[in-house]
Design a protein that fits this description.
The structure holds two protein chains of two kinds. Chain A is α+β, with helices and mostly antiparallel strands. In chain A, strands 1, 2, 3, 4, 5, 6 and 7 form a seven-stranded mixed beta sheet that branches. A two-stranded antiparallel ribbon of chain A has the order 8-9. In chain A, a hairpin with a 2-residue loop joins β2 and β3. In chain A, α1 runs parallel beside α4 and α5 runs antiparallel to α7. Chain A starts with 6 loop residues before the first helix and ends in a 6-residue tail after the last helix. The model of chain A has no long low-confidence stretch (mean pLDDT 96). Chain B is α+β, with helices and mostly antiparallel strands. Chain B has three domains: 99 residues, Orthogonal Bundle (Butyryl-Coa Dehydrogenase, subunit A, domain 1), CATH 1.10.540; 124 residues, Beta Barrel (Butyryl-CoA Dehydrogenase, subunit A, domain 2), CATH 2.40.110; 128 residues, Butyryl-CoA Dehydrogenase, subunit A, domain 3. In chain B, the strands form three sheets. In chain B, strands 1-4-5-9 form a four-stranded mixed beta sheet. Chain B has a four-stranded antiparallel beta sheet with strand order 2-3-8-6, with no helix packed on it. In chain B, a hairpin with a 2-residue loop joins β2 and β3. In chain B, α5 crosses α7, α9 runs antiparallel to α10 and α10 packs across α11. Classes of the chains: A alpha+beta, B alpha+beta. At the A-B interface, α7, β9, α8, α9 and α11 of A face α8, α9 and α12 of B.
């Protein structure tokens, strides 16, 4: 049933929150965001082993927990809340979904258990400068000779692309979109960190020059990769809700304790009303994410629309609240020392990642036939 | 009485009295429903109820839906009488013949209205100035009330007046039931932004009220008023609309019909705005469903509190957008502004949208302004401190007022 969460869902949320509050506090986030790697493999291993959330949405036959989008939304929300620095979106969501939905059985059997166990980090390289988020615009084409493939060109904004050791690439062969696997040490592959606006999520540019690749899919995978991307979009929107909720709490707590003109600033309506507006946006954003999560399980037809609604609304909402949080904190909110900028950077980068709000609104409007004569 | 006995009892009522008699025959049927204790099952026996748990009322409604062709919504028959007056009369009424009074509320023979707001007391209701002064045992009332729906057809009004101006504002109020036909009560239509009068103004000049028409005790008016308003919340707590229904459906319809007189850029901007509003109204609907699901599992979060504010703001924005989709055509207002009573309804989407551009200005004012809603969200949900109060612990008559 729509929006009916079970006791197990509550337990999952509590377990993940308890773990993350200890293992991903602000100090830890600051350490990891300053590192080039950007995550802690020991912690990642514990998330796989102790919590079983690295293989959360990987099928049980591939060593995962076999959960669905509702559980994914809960976990991603908690991660977004603490700005967890981990390859969750890249490996546990995007790469795992691409493999599960678009790869052949052999590749699934070989790679998914490693990803689910946290023994390898996966990523999906699909964005190109000319068409960063629209899969139909992917131009990179594989050369093929004697059943061997080689890739040339550049993929950008590759999540954890500099550290991943299971690199999946979306490229064309005879016009069809296919999924390729490239070894991390393959010849002609140059990986360069792209200094990220949001230092808690690392990006890399991957340059290929006649780099050997293995095709791991059959037929055109455009639709299947689109579904994989959709899962990542919903997970990202859930992260946004978690972050927005945390920001609302931070701003509200500050407004209760910060005194100016002899009274807490939260007693001024100009501050109070901003907090109320933040609350409204956070609650609508939460409905958007849970709707998308439930829709993907109960109403696949409307799942794409629900994902577009979630990504566009949650992006706007997170950015608004992160922005207001800085303003409510005044000068303090502009300092490096305060957490406000970490959330602002995450909010802005998440808004841009996988397509801006207007990009998704346009897709939704087209799908729903708005204004078509 | 258990559920199945209650069902049987309702079926017996339907068998004994024809619910579908023609004309104004709802009165005998609803009267019989009252006499059977099926009007409000939670009320005491003999006063329209059976002393049962309130939630069992749904059993009665369910059987009535199944067994009668004509089903009269309580809120249609006598919204303020049934929604607000009945529980208050039951709890606080001292008048003789309470049973008959409640019965006529339920049948709709006597319509009720609510005389709370005043020209000088809107959001700050407790600051109201209508004055009731003792004259022997009676009270003499003077003042003015406003935004009184149904006053022109009401027999009774629920009224709050100031009986003691020398104490702080909340402490000096008393609650009355006012005979709207009493000498000195004058009801005038209040014309609004659309030229229509959905509401009235009520002028009170030396109106005499007998002591048994006070509900609760002298000085208890605020407490009784709060109880009334709680009932109003329960009464007005509506269900979620269906997917794609309501104002947003009109906006999409108008967008569909818009001809290509806009530039590419103007079109793109408008389309994005419509998409945004579509998402917002869909999320508002979903948040209502989420609040219901949360109530169902007894985990009540803030999702239930944001509805009024969000609905008001999104609703206004949708009707504004409709006018922009219509473009220059919205320069023409076919309804005209002839002053008249009642409320315009229109089956033509274009005319409906033009009307609602104006009518929707009230969304963020009526039933609690958006500013008051933000205060409530800020203070009660987020726990932010209140504003310092300059009118607290000060006799009402010393509080500055406009």
């Amino acid at each position: 049933m729509l929006f009916e969460f079970s006791d197990e869902h509550g337990e999952l949320r509590r377990t993940v929150r308890n773990f993350l509050e200890k293992e991903s506090d602000e100090n830890r986030v600051r350490e990891l965001m300053a590192s080039e790697q950007g995550h802690d493999l020991t912690c990642w291993g514990r998330m796989a082993e102790e919590l079983g959330i690295v293989g959360l949405i990987v099928a049980e036959r591939h060593g995962g927990a076999g959960f669905g989008m509702v559980e994914l939304a809960i976990v991603a929300e908690e991660m977004g809340r603490v700005l967890l620095c981990a390859p969750f979106l890249a490996s546990a969501v995007l790469a795992s979904s691409a493999l599960e939905l678009a790869a052949d059985e052999a590749a699934q059997n070989e790679i998914l258990p490693k990803l689910a166990a946290g023994k390898a980090i996966g990523t999906l390289a699909f964005s190109e400068a000319a068409s960063p988020w629209d899969l139909s615009g992917i131009a990179m084409a594989a050369e093929s000779s004697g059943g061997k493939f080689r890739l040339s060109g550049e993929k950008i904004y590759v999540l954890d692309g500099h550290t991943a050791n299971e690199i999946l690439v979306a490229a064309r062969i005879d016009g069809e979109l296919a999924l390729f696997r490239v070894a991390a040490d393959a010849s002609g592959l140059v990986r360069a960190v792209q200094p990220p606006l949001d230092p808690t999520r690392k990006l890399a540019a991957l340059r290929f020059e006649r780099t050997p690749a293995t095709r791991i899919s059959v037929g055109d995978v455009s639709d299947r990769l689109e579904r994989a991307l959709e899962r990542a979009i919903v997970a990202l929107a859930a992260e946004q809700v978690g972050g927005a909720q945390r920001v609302l709490e931070t701003a509200t707590d500050f407004a209760k304790t910060r005194f100016q003109f002899g009274r807490p600033i939260g007693s001024f309506q100009v501050i109070k009303h901003q907090c109320a507006d933040m609350l409204v946006e956070v609650e609508l954003a939460r409905s958007a994410v849970y709707n998308a999560a439930f829709a993907s399980e109960e109403d696949p037809e409307s799942a794409s629309i629900a994902a577009q609604m979630a990504k566009s609304y949650c992006s706007d909402a997170y950015l608004h609240v992160a922005n207001r949080n800085i303003q409510i904190h005044g000068g303090m909110g502009f300092t490096w020392e305060h957490s406000a900028h970490l959330y602002f950077k995450r909010a802005k980068a998440s808004e841009l990642l996988f397509g801006t709000p207007s990009f998704h609104r346009e897709r939704m409007a087209t799908a729903l036939g708005f204004g078509a004569h | 009485m258990n559920e199945s006995e209650l069902r049987a009892c309702t079926r017996k009522l339907l068998a004994d009295v024809n619910p579908d008699a023609k004309g104004d025959q709802r009165i005998p049927f609803r009267g019989a429903q009252f006499d059977h204790g099926l009007a409000w099952v939670s009320f005491p026996e003999g006063l329209g109820g059976l002393g049962l748990a309130p939630k069992l009322q749904t059993i009665v409604q369910d059987e009535l839906h199944k067994g009668a062709e004509t089903y009269f919504e309580d809120m249609y028959i006598n919204p303020i009488g049934i929604g607000m007056a009945a529980p208050v009369v039951l709890a606080y009424g001292k008048v003789e013949g309470k049973r008959e009074l409640l019965r006529r509320i339920f049948t709709g023979e006597e319509i009720w209205c609510q005389l709370f707001s005043e020209p000088s007391a809107g959001s700050d209701l407790a600051g109201l100035a209508a004055r009731a002064v003792r004259d022997g045992d009676d009270w003499i009332l003077n003042g003015q009330k406003v935004w009184t729906t149904l006053a022109h057809i009401s027999k009774w009004g629920l009224l709050v007046a100031r009986t003691n101006p020398d104490v702080p504002k909340h402490d000096g109020l008393s609650y009355f039931m006012l005979d709207m036909q009493a000498p000195g009560v004058e009801v005038r239509p209040l014309y609004q932004i659309t030229g229509e009068a959905e509401f009235n103004e009520v002028f009170l000049n030396d109106v005499r009220i007998p002591p048994e028409h006070m509900l609760g005790e002298e000085g208890q008016g605020w407490k009784v008023a709060i109880a009334t308003l709680m009932n109003e919340r329960v009464a007005l707590g509506g269900g979620a609309s269906r997917k794609g229904g309501g104002p947003i459906a009109i906006l999409l319809e108008l967008l569909q019909g818009a001809d290509g007189q806009r530039s590419k850029f103007e079109d793109a901007l408008l389309r994005d705005r419509v998409a945004k509003l579509y998402i917002e109204s869909e999320l508002l609907r979903l948040t209502g469903i989420r609040a219901k699901a949360a109530r169902h599992s007894n985990v009540i979060g803030p999702e239930g509190s944001v509805g009024k504010l969000a609905q008001a703001e999104i609703g206004k924005a949708i009707w504004e957008c409709c006018a922009d989709v219509l473009g220059p055509d919205a320069l023409v207002y076919e309804h005209g502004y002839e002053l008249r009573q009642g409320r315009t309804s229109s089956t033509d989407s274009k005319l409906h949208a033009k009307y609602n551009l104006l009518r929707s200005r009230a969304y963020s004012i009526e039933g609690g302004t958006s500013e008051i809603m933000r205060n409530i969200l800020g203070e009660r949900v987020l726990g932010l401190p209140g504003e310092p109060r300059v009118d607290k612990d000060v006799p009402w008559k010393e509080v500055p007022r406009s």
